[in-house]
């Protein structure tokens, strides 16, 4: 395969994504991001612009540049940097772009809606999970050969009909503009003019692949903006046989009942307001008991019709978990689960499932810190959401690259470094997008995610504190306008 193409590449073709992702038809899961995925999405949302032969900002190039912003930080994340990458792409085809002002790119970027990008995120995750052989249980020898972390190896040792999905919430800041403040107001505990627009997000992440399956977004506070309300918005993303893993905040009767109606099992830490040892519990064995939760009164957010469809009771298995590892809570805790078969799915297995929930914290760290999504730059709410979903699309594409390498190299994706794989894509994004790939680049793309081993430091104890002090200016204690008035009067 020749690296340098003799003919200019098609600016309207979404093949640019498979090239930037170091793809080859021989790779596993290569069909997950073939051109048809993008063509169908743009047709579904009726996005069509720059149809002229001499157009610079085609839909494919604009989305490609938008994703490139998510793979870089600081100045390299700006719209000017994205425009420069498009100009460099055209220069590689032998054409000079005279005007590199970011205005035209920003106008074109607004035509790609956040719903379109969100659709791509969900579709790629769904296709990757469906094409991966994740349902087959692993024995100890297979798990050891694949370098599977211990907790995940325990979870995968039992047969499951669906996915293990982890749920957790987080917040992100947006640029402080009147439009953003109106739709996503700052924390109400902060004085006006001192805070930033705040978005609350709840994510559904696959334990096996690390892919983000779905995300719900809302203002930080207000009616129906809590994490349980956002999870209810994503309930249709769950399918029969799935196992939903969450902390105690989500452990409510309503979520358990909704999951049970869809054939979804739950593993959650028992809510602190519920008794771990109720008097009416039926003992199963030592440390395990069965309880029945009756249907509570109808909440205000639920209609009478929905309430009538809810079961009058839910059967729950309570499992006591003791943890002897350093750095974990020594007193133990109780898990509530709808998986009632205690002989196949033992207390040790249930404990491993809940222990694996920590992975979603690491995945959110990868999204917010490695991809720099903790502070969004966009000035308007629609572009804030587009920027957010673009970061999530970059996240899923990085996870897809890791999954391809893992399948090819018989390695568990949870033993690979996300940051190293992200650096690989960031390096290849412009080079391969503009010139294509050869066999050596494809081999590099498969090999580099396997170079580093993570998730195998058992018994590691580290303080959750930083040694290096940040260098910060004096913090604002009043709105900036008040400071400006004060400084003006002093002059």
From TrEMBL:
Domain of life assignment: Bacteria
Annotated ranges, domain Transposase IS4-like: 162-397
Any Gene Ontology biological process: DNA transposition
MF (Gene Ontology): DNA binding; transposase activity
Protein name (record): Transposase DDE domain protein
Protein source organism: Rubripirellula tenax
């Amino acid at each position: 395969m020749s690296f340098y193409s003799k003919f200019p590449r098609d600016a309207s073709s979404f093949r640019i994504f498979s090239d930037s992702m170091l793809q080859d038809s021989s790779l596993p899961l290569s069909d997950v991001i073939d051109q048809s995925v993008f063509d169908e999405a743009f047709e579904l949302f009726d996005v069509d612009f720059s149809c002229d032969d001499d157009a610079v900002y085609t839909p494919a190039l604009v989305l490609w540049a938008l994703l490139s912003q998510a793979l870089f930080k600081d100045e390299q994340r700006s719209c000017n940097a994205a425009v420069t990458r498009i100009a460099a792409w055209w220069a590689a085809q032998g054409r000079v772009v005279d005007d590199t002002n970011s205005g035209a790119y920003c106008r074109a970027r607004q035509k790609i809606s956040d719903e379109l990008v969100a659709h791509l995120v969900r579709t790629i995750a769904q296709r990757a999970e469906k094409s991966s052989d994740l349902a087959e249980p692993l024995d100890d020898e297979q798990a050891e050969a694949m370098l599977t972390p211990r907790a995940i190896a325990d979870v995968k040792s039992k047969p499951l009909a669906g996915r293990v999905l982890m749920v957790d919430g987080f917040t992100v800041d947006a640029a402080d503009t009147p439009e953003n403040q109106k739709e996503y107001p700052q924390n109400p505990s902060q004085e006006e003019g001192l805070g930033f627009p705040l978005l609350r997000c709840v994510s559904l992440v696959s334990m096996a692949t690390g892919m983000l399956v779905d995300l719900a977004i809302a203002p930080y506070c207000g009616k129906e903006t809590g994490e349980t309300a956002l999870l209810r918005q994503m309930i249709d993303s769950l399918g029969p046989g799935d196992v939903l893993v969450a902390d105690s905040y989500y452990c409510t009767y309503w979520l358990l009942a909704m999951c049970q109606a869809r054939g979804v099992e739950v593993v959650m830490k028992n809510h602190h307001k519920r008794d771990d040892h109720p008097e009416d519990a039926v003992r199963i064995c030592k440390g395990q008991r069965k309880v029945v939760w009756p249907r509570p009164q109808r909440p205000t957010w639920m209609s009478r019709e929905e309430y009538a469809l809810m079961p009058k009771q839910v059967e729950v298995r309570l499992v006591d978990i003791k943890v002897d590892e350093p750095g974990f809570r020594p007193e133990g805790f109780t898990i509530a689960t709808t998986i009632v078969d205690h002989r196949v799915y033992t207390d040790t297995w249930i404990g491993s499932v809940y222990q694996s929930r920590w992975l979603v914290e690491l995945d959110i760290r990868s999204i917010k810190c490695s991809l720099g999504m903790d502070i969004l730059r966009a000035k308007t709410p629609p572009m804030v959401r587009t920027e957010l979903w673009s970061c999530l699309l970059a996240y899923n594409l990085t996870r897809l690259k890791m999954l391809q390498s893992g399948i090819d190299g018989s390695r568990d994706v949870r033993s690979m470094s996300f940051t190293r794989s992200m650096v690989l894509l960031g390096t290849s994004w412009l080079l391969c997008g503009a010139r294509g790939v050869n066999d050596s680049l494809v081999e590099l793309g498969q090999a580099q995610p396997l170079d580093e081993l993570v998730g195998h430091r058992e018994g590691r104890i580290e303080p959750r504190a930083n040694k290096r002090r940040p260098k910060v200016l004096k913090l604002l204690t009043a709105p900036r306008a008040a400071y400006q008035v004060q400084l003006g009067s002093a002059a």
